[in-house]
Design brief:
Elements lengths: L15 H16 L4 E3 L2 E8 L1 E3 L2 E11 L7 H6 L10 E10 L2 H5 L9 E9 L20 H6 L20 E7 L5 E3 L3 E4 L4 E9 L8 E9 L10 H27 L6 H30 L1 E3 H26 L13 H24 L8 H35 L2 H34 L11 H20 L38 H11 L3 H18 L1
Antiparallel strand pairs: 1-12, 2-11, 3-4, 4-10, 5-8, 5-9, 5-11, 6-7, 6-10
Helix pairs in contact: 5-6, 5-11, 6-7, 6-11, 7-8, 7-9, 8-9, 9-10, 10-11
Pfam families: GOST_TM
Organism: Cannabis sativa (Hemp)
Subcellular location: Membrane
Amino acid sequence: MGQTPRNHQILGCDLPNGYKILVITFIYLSYCSILQVGASIHEYHTESFIRRSNSFFFHGGSEGLYASKPRSENDKLVSEDKPINGKSFIRFESVTFRRTKHSAEQKNAMQQRTGLVEAIILEVRDRDKIGGSYLNSDALCCTPELAKDSSCKVGEVIIHQNLDNPNGPKRLQAFFEGKNEELTMPIQTIEINSTGMYYLYFMFCDPELIGTVISGRTVWRNPDGYLPGKMAPLMTFSGLMSFAYLVLGLVWFLRFVQYWKDIIQLHYHITAVIALGMCEMALWYFEYANFNSTGSRPMGITIWAVTLTAVKKTISRLLLLMVSLGYGVVRPTLGSITSKLILLALTYFVASEALELVEHLGNINDFSGKARLFLVLPVALLDACFILWIFSSLSKTLEKLQVRRSMAKLELYRKFTNALAVSVLLSVVWIGYELYFNATDPLSELWRRAWIIPAFWTLLAYIILVVICVLWAPSHNPTGYAYSEETGDDFDDEEGIPLTGSGVKVAGDLSNMVERKERKTLTAADHLVFGLSEDLEEDKRE
């Protein structure tokens, strides 16, 4: 998120097993920190060509590229030592084609050109200029029949050039010589002078070259760095969000210190989420900055950022669920459901981590891979589980508070419920927009605004966290929303698993069970008297 966060057991000191898993994961990641993965460098490792119509092609990459910046004479003199400053380009480096031995042996050793491979660079708006569509033909390669009626050459890819648009599709040609099995393209740099979504295809028309494979790499660069055009705004956004978390953290820390004697356990969990969000956004900013300046990204930093994102996403959802369950407000512990929480959190963490890794360490094209769909579905289903559990728990918590007539807590939870309802409504609307956006833009022509989709989820998570910080802010009188033994709650769970070290005794001992059964035998009148007396006691405390 989007840029985006990770889920883990953040329930505190009573989760030793989960904590050990987290430590082991981080130790493993530290060993990976010296490895590197490609960034805006598209690498090809003995890739095969695919047949289409009467041609064979290989998709070499696609990215959103901005036009090169115009430079004055002074700028040219200043940047002589750095000629790529302000330039947008695609550079071919060590691109090699290897045909089969059988294909090479069929050729004449004395012949200079025995096989043609072309590199076609086109902006997505010019896609109709490739092939014979303007000649009422589905062919991509020029045939003798088409050559008679047009200016195309037999054996070459058909490109309809527009003399009024010099920035149209570009063609680079490379030839096999004699019986050579290998062909290496010379290092070439193609400058981009028009902003758009660019595609690179390697193509050949000769059926005798079937079985040819490609290796090597191409480097793509925007005027301000190596970040793909779709990702470039995310670096600025990550920096701004890091600053926003820093501001929230400072305000929260001041309140935390001011009322440190009245801190409840829930405040520590909120502090952890703020800290994770701050570190997550800072890591993503530095990861994007490194990507932009070097063209490659250290695997260690990227995996740390991805992992921290998944952890923060998990913990944020756990925090929402804990608050909805009334943890620290109407119940001192989560009881036997703790194990269910941990299981759901770990499952979500694994699914979210896998999705984030594919998105950030997989294909770097500005084009969504099909594998992403299969990883999105588990995350979406788990998010639905969280939402259902959260609102179901909120409903039960509100019902209990109404029965007990705890007006201060009831008002607090009503505000929290309204905020969550608004966020869910916004999420549904945004999901609809995202589906519409992807359905109407299959070729990423709207790549310049695509960054707002992951940015929205990051911003929404921040807003929800701010709402929780406001509603549960530390104060000199936390009894308005803190759990009180005197107004003890009837738990659905008979066994209690404490999540904190506060020493609050959980319902479970024999005396409390007997006392609870006795309360259940009270008459309606006794309930009324008890409720009134409880309200009076609560009003005194407030």
